[in-house]
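Sat 14:20. Reprocessing the chain from the morning session after the first attempt stalled halfway. Input below, unchanged.
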Amino acid sequence: MNVFFKIFTYSSISGLAVIIGGYLGTKKIPSKLLAFVLTFGSGVLLSVLSFSLMHEAYRQSGPICTSLAFLLGGITFFIIEGQLTKRVARGTGMILGTALDDLPEALSMGIGFATDSGRLGMVLALSIFLHNIPESLSSTSDLVMETRLSPRAAMVLAFLIALLDPFAALTGYYLLRNLSPVWLGMIMAFSGGSILFMTGTDMIPKAHKIGTRLENLGLLAGFLAAFLLSRLM
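Finished this time. Tokens:
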């Protein structure tokens, strides 16, 4: 398959999950089910970071550059989240936050197609698909409930955010693939730090708040599913 169409296809699949999650987010979802879905998505991301993304970043950049970029990614999104909270209306901040959540994942996906014969890109695309459904479900549900946004408007936003996946993935591949391996690894590590920060400060706390210990077992299921996916591909 042509590289362009390969990246476009896989990234569009991961973007489709945003639309699916957005649609489900306009419906009334039981809190226990939502908690399980959120922890499942969090487990997927934790597994991908541990066994795929950070592993490749370390292989490309080594311990020092990987560590610095990873910490910088987390700190950057810590600052961005704080500024959105202080300076932007809640509804707008939630929309921007959702889009920013998706951006580093999609960029890493594109870079993943430029390394390791494209295997990392495919693993990331399918893992992001598993993660995007609960993330989009949660953010859309919050938008509808807390900002009184209509379900139709929420679906339009979900569709627009879904377009980020193929756009950012193709950008990551064509604009960044010629960088040195050290820089590619640092970009992946930066994305890893930002993804981990957002998972630890948003999805997991919300799941613990609305769910019980049983629903939070989704963390184990999501981690295992993504781990097996990375080993079997």
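The mean pLDDT is 86.
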